[in-house]
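Help: read this over?
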Amino acid sequence: MSNNNAQPLWQPTPEAIAATQMDQFRRRVNDRHQLNLADYAELYQWSVDQREQFWSDLWDYAEVIASERGEQVLGKDTMPGAEWFPGARLNFAENLLRYRDDKVALVERLENGSRRQLSYAELYARVERVAAALVAEGVEQGDRVAGFMPNIIDTVVAMLATTSIGAIWTSCSPDFGINGVFDRFGQVQPKVLFACEGYFYNGKTIDSLPRLQEIVARIESIEKMVVVPVARSAEDTRAAIASLDKAVTLDDFVRTAPERALSFAQTEFNHPLYIMYSSGTTGVPKCIVHGVGGTLLQHLKEHRLHCDLKRDDTLFYFTTCGWMMWNWLVSGLACGATLVLFDGSPFYPAAESLWDMADEEGISVFGTSAKYIAALEKSGRKPRESHKLEKLRAVLSTGSPLAHEGFRYVYRDIKEDVCLSSISGGTDIVSCFALGNPTLPVYAGELQCRGLGMAVEVWNDDGQAVVGEKGELVCAKSFPCMPIGFWNDDDGAKYRGAYFENWPGVWAHGDYAEVTEHGGVIIYGRSDAVLNPGGVRIGTAEIYRQVEKVEEVLDSICIGQDWRDDVRVVLFVVLREGVELDDALIQKIRATIRANTTPRHVPAKVIQVADIPRTISGKIVELAVRNVVHGKPVKNQEALANPEALKLYENLPELAED
């Protein structure tokens, strides 16, 4: 395993490549169209040049279930507003419930040790009963159903029941505060709310009932709140909600509904499926509406081709229901795989807990965040020495760029023969622009490839596509999983402003990135968080990569501070217990950064803090910290998991001096 990035950390064998669905798809395209596409690079270029043919072939390959496909693949080809498969009629839940046998569909594991599982046949029956209850409650096509739920079986069932009717699912995790819930669900006005009465996190039992009472009082559209027992028994839950307005337990909700055979409402390709929310750290969260067909096709592509997901796989992603990776994970049902749903702290009761689970459940595709991998390495754990991980063949990482050291840690201390895929996209497209590929080598610090059918490029300030240079990540041609629009944005102004302001008709994603010579992608951070000392643009990920090498530092956040008509780099660090930030450590941090970057990357100030503010899905909020440092308000602190941490950055004397 070389430190030279010209050498891959991992490479699949020719036999392994030939066995993948990605390579099978390449050969199929060659046969169908009398082509001679030799490898992924050529397949990718074809998929972008011949988008209509690609998405049509993918539809066939993935065996999309639809009552009508329609003659046309692409009607109007504009961004925004592209019309993919305008004649199609299909149902999302029907595609996820295509298997109805005794194979395990869902395994639920809670932090307190409880475990449940459901076969595909049992899942179908459970969805049928909940859908019947929703119909009896008056839920119709286009109505919103919300989940204030942990990552458990009942959440998946409620989503599938909702979407089977053609209603729209929206969710956030139960660790959101009242205002965070209201800022989201209050905008979309759900008719029914599924909510847990409590949940477990980091060894504690958290009671949700006081918040449920307030949610129902504040969101008038809610006609029924279905309370799901998690931390209490069914009997105790029934007693606890007896005086709660509009509340019914899940058992009673289902039991009292008349029987109804599960049917799947056939909707147009762009019928709303999910409403998801931007992080909301700069204002009220944007309500991003995703369509049935685009979400399904994109997830089938990513699971089957880019992850090589098959029926005998067990897929796990560490996520909450407030993060788009939950929606991505659940789509794995369409491949017939077993999904592992975990709810709780990944480090409770011990740092290796998720790897214990990986062995016990035979997880083959293990998904997590870059933050988790970095924290696991800092904890000194080496799963390859303590665990078997026999079935593990792929590790996925997202949420923020995975540092080179994170890549090397996975191969050194987790498993040598594994496809490590750093993936990037987001809530905006409920999927990825760049991601993994079981037919390609893995290079440290790089996402393996751009996704099939996605015309992803990096543009310089003149709007020219560049390779081997940093710039703005864009998608230059329309793609099926673009949002339909934003909720309550009738003239589309907010939607256009979010992605199409820089270059009309071109999706600008807001990532500062580079396409490498061998077709990989490096993400340097968010464009709006790029540092600009002396007019030179620096991605924060370049600095984090070096700081992670410093043993004493557990976590860090980096901003640009306006200073004397320029910008200076300021680095805040959280240190290991008992470690103080003295001159020697500051010099060590600066020397580490300087040795591997440029003098402009070296922070003018290094300041110790006790905590770093993060969104509820775990992303650090550089803009919020920058605003606090400059005395500007942070509008929506409800979007943060730990808003109190912002106070640590107010009026720091070190930032008022040279």
The domain at 115-265 is CATH 3.40.50.980 (Rossmann fold). Residues 460 and 617 are 30 Å apart (CA to CA).
